[in-house]
Amino acid sequence: MKALVYGGPGQRSWTEVPDPTISDPRDAIIEVDTVTICGTDLHILAGDVPAVEPGRILGHEAVGTVVDTGTGVTGLNRGDRVLASCVSACGVCRYCRAGSYGQCLGGGGWILGHRVDGVQARYARLPFADLSTYRLPANVTDEAAVMLADILPTSYEVGVLNGKVRPGDTVVVVGVGPIGLAAILTAKLYSPSHVIAVDKAASRLQAAKQFGADVAVNADEDPREVVQAITGGLGADVVIEAVGSPASFEACTTLVRPGGHVANVGVHGKPALLHLEELWIKNITITTGLVDTYSTPTLLTMLAAGQLDVGHMITHRFALDDFMAAYDVFAKPAETGALKVVLSHG
Fold first, then answer.
1. Keyword Hydrolase, does the record have it (predicted)?
2. What CATH number does the domain located at 153-287 have?
3. pLDDT in tens, 185-241
4. Helix (H) or strand (E) holding 184
5. Nearest of 187, 164, 174 to residue 249 by alpha carbon
6. What sections of 190-234 are H helices per DSSP?
7. Consecutive H or E run containing 97
8. What's the Rg (C-alpha) of the chain?
9. Collapsing DSSP states into helix, strand and coil, what is residue 145?
10. Whole-angstrom distance, CA of residue 195 vs CA of residue 169
């Protein structure tokens, strides 16, 4: 089969690899119907995730059809259309029993496209399939569902819930790529008084307004001045970091009010300064996190009920064999206006 293979920092190829096979009774094999590219894949290609070894098939966001299951799989049948979660869960370790699936000690967590081969391929092996897939309702399209593989639960859990967004809050989202847009969308569920989007790309700031941002600010201007004006000089209640750079994280800590929350969602490959000489007295909570995907069933229910509109997230569509072109488009959002790109089989 063909797959998108990581060859080391800056190197990727759409090339022939062996078909995946069942290697554990709890595995399932899916034929990939719809798949997308994540900003984390770009971080991998930049060398920011050294645990990913050359030869690894990338990707952790897909919808597919079950074509085979191990003897230990009880909840799936061949022909089922499923969402493949970005996080796999053994279900029995200490962290899984507490719902912290991202920290799974039993061989799960974020492993697809990281420590085991991922889903940017014709076929993919899904470990712990019963607990790491979701059968999809007929009224949920593949394109809508694939947004729930990673970006919606990540933004909701690591950004909105960790940041403790409450009604009436002023929320700032720094970086409004797909993760930041999903943070705006899910923050709006809690009726904040203001949502302020910060980014350098005009196309993404325009998209942020479509997703519910009240104010859009270019990062090269003075976001702090805008936030101070809106909050009467206090600062934001919640600031969500959705870039993954030292400059963006440090900017977030200047935008939050005393007693507020900074929720880091971005993937960081370099150290960032923590200015404790300024922050120690301000009662600020800083959270980090890897998504656990415990919210995926709730988000899927809302999607099926028409309560989440993710259609504007997808800006480019490709055939599965056009992965190299899709990466080129996704990697240059300032030039292409790309938010999420999806690739479909057939």
1. no
2. 3.40.50.720
3. 999 999 999 999 999 999 899 999 999 999 999 999 999 999 999 999 999 999 999
4. helix 178-187
5. 174
6. 202-210, 223-230
7. helix 94-97
8. 20
9. helix
10. 8
Cα 94–Cα 97–Cα 101 angle in degrees, nearest 5: 85
Contact by Cβ (8 Å): 49, 43: yes
Per-residue pLDDT of 247-259, as tens digits, reads 999 999 999 999 9
- Chain segment 258-279, per-residue pLDDT in tens: 999 999 999 998 999 999 999 9
Residue pair 129/76 in contact (Cβ under 8 Å)? The answer is yes
Residue 176 to residue 154: CA distance in whole angstroms: 14
Q: Provide the 10 A C-beta neighbour count for residue 107.
A: 16
For the chain, percent helix, then strand, then coil, each to nearest 5?
30, 25, 45
CATH of domain 2-150+292-344: 3.90.180.10
Instruction: Tell which residue, 86, 64, 137, has the closest CA to residue 320.
Output: 64
The answer to whether the beta carbons of residues 114 and 60 sit under 8 Å apart is yes
Buried residues in 159-175 as b, exposed as e (16+ CB within 10 A): bbbbbebeeebbbbbbb
Helix axes of 202-210 and 178-187: crossing angle, nearest 10 degrees: 30
Distances (CA, A) of 197 to 39, 157, 177, 237, 262: 18, 19, 10, 14, 15
